[in-house]
């Protein structure tokens, strides 16, 4: 029996000062919006969930350099399907795990804060993976992987796999590595290594880059959200 044609996008609940003037990181909007659009176009129903049922948008992700005019209109329109589902985020206990064939962990650096301890989201992903579904993450969304345990091995579902995600060099160049250390959190590269995975870097820091290893699909940065979701759909179709 083929998996359900329904996708669940995970959203960070965390937020913290990161930018000048104390402006905060949170959900990087396009890293949820682009996958949402890809899944809808591919004929999926799409739901959104966070560990606490709440979220805060990342300040940078609302700026014009990162949010195109048409995307901004969708974001600002509380009656749009995307924004209305964000405004009424599911909590893990409200998710019927058997209804979904793809879980996609969206991002924003705030993901580094809550995803490692997001037991509800991790339990959903672990059950879906054990059932044969696709588990995907983009940019800092890979922070969720070390805590998603493969029931057949007792190890992370990315142990022995190749994954990508935001580069440590990118954290250094953007001047945020000290903030990440102050959160007592590893970079995505370090988290992947600790979980027994092999980290694959994108060709350049901001290149759109996705990587598929079996039923694990990962993307490198905000520019990769769309093609990571497209790769997740492709992997789903191959099941």
Automatic annotation (TrEMBL):
Catalytically driven reaction(s): methylglyoxal + H2O = (R)-lactate + H(+)
Record-linked InterPro entries: Class_I_gatase-like, DJ-1/PfpI, Prot/Nucl_acid_deglycase
Keywords (A to Z) from UniProt: Glutamine amidotransferase, Lyase, Stress response
Biological processes per GO annotation: methylglyoxal catabolic process to D-lactate via S-lactoyl-glutathione
Any one of the GO CC terms: cytoplasm
Enzyme Commission number, as recorded: 4.2.1.130
DJ-1/PfpI domain span: 30-144
Pfam families for this protein: DJ-1_PfpI (PF01965)
One annotated GO molecular function: glyoxalase III activity
SUPFAM superfamilies, alphabetized: Class I glutamine amidotransferase-like (SSF52317)
Family membership noted in the UniProt record: Belongs to the peptidase C56 family. HSP31-like subfamily.
PANTHER family assigned: GLUTATHIONE-INDEPENDENT GLYOXALASE HSP31-RELATED, PROTEIN/NUCLEIC ACID DEGLYCASE DJ-1-RELATED
Protein name: D-lactate dehydratase
Classification lineage: Eukaryota, Fungi, Dikarya, Ascomycota, Pezizomycotina
């Amino acid at each position: 029996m083929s998996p359900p044609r329904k996708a669940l996008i995970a959203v960070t609940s965390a937020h913290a000062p990161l930018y000048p003037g104390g402006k905060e990181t949170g959900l990087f909007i396009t890293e949820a919006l682009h996958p949402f659009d890809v899944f809808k176009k591919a004929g999926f129903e799409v739901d959104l969930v966070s560990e606490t049922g709440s979220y805060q948008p990342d300040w940078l992700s609302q700026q014009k350099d990162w949010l195109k005019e048409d995307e901004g209109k969708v974001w600002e329109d509380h009656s749009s399907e995307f924004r209305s589902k964000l405004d009424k985020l599911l909590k893990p206990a409200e998710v019927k795990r058997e209804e979904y064939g793809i879980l996609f962990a969206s991002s924003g650096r705030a993901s580094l804060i809550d995803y490692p301890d997001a037991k509800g989201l991790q339990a959903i992903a672990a059950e879906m993976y054990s059932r044969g579904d696709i588990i995907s993450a983009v940019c800092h969304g890979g922070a969720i992987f070390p805590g998603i345990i493969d029931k057949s091995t007792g190890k992370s579902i990315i142990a022995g796999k190749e994954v990508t995600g935001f580069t440590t060099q990118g954290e250094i160049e953007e001047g945020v590595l000290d903030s990440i250390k102050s959160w007592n959190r590893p970079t995505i590269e370090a988290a992947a290594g600790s979980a027994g995975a092999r980290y694959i870097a994108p060709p350049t820091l901001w290149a759109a880059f996705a990587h598929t290893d079996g039923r694990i699909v990962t993307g490198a940065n905000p520019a990769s959200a769309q093609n990571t979701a497209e790769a997740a759909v492709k992997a789903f179709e191959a099941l």
